[in-house]
Q: What sequence folds into this?
């Protein structure tokens, strides 16, 4: 599976928005990796503006850890301001990562780091822009697995209908285990579909899968 960049469609919109540089990427120490060799692909989202999310060390630690693995890649994603959101909807540009401008829907996992509850609705906007069903129950085998973490996800019940997995505690350890589970499931031909993958993730220490509980 390939995931072509959406930058050709995004670039003409940038002169029409405030602070367009926040959507361009290419920062010092950014780590864009080739798409095809990676067995597992993460979009790491900080659900707030670029200038708020870029200094977040938690996301950057996960970004480094995942990209150090030869079998994985990670790209970063942030919330867009309303001016660009309106233009993206008008021109059919999906939510994208800043590293390679790939659409969020092409990734295996979307890891969302919630520092505050204010990010909850920004996640929903990003999912809507990406064409990913808002409710976890409506997602199929080809949709990314939405993994929530961070301080505002220690009690994940307010967003339980919208995330597939909540990673409780520090993400530095569990992110590797999640990657291993997804890699094995894909290598086996994705047996049992999305439900089987979620069952396997539910067996990982620190992972809570809300759909399996009332």
A:
């Amino acid at each position: 599976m390939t995931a072509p960049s959406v930058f050709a469609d995004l670039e003409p919109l940038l002169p029409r928005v405030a602070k367009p540089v926040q959507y361009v990427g290419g920062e010092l120490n950014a780590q864009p990796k080739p798409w095809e060799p990676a067995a597992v692909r993460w979009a790491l989202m900080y659900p707030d503006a670029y200038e708020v999310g870029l200094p977040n060390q938690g996301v950057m630690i996960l970004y480094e850890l995942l990209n150090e693995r030869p079998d994985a890649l990670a790209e970063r994603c942030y919330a867009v301001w309303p001016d660009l959101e309106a233009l993206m909807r008008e021109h059919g540009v999906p939510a994208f990562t800043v590293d390679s401008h790939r659409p969020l829907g092409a990734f295996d996992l979307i890891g969302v780091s919630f520092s505050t509850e204010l990010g909850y609705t920004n996640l929903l906007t990003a999912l809507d822009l990406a064409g990913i069903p808002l409710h976890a129950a409506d997602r199929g085998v080809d949709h990314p697995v939405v993994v929530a973490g961070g301080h505002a996800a220690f009690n994940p019940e307010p967003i339980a209908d919208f995330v597939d997995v909540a990673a409780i505690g520090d993400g530095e350890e569990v992110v590797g285990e999640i990657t291993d589970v997804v890699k094995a499931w894909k290598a086996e031909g994705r047996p049992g579909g999305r439900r089987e993958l979620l069952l396997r993730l539910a067996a990982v220490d620190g992972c809570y899968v809300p759909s399996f509980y009332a």
About this structure: The mean pLDDT is 95. The radius of gyration is 16 Å. Strands lie at 40-46, 72-78, 109-113, 145-149, 165-167, 207-208. Residues 171-187 form the longest helix (17 residues).
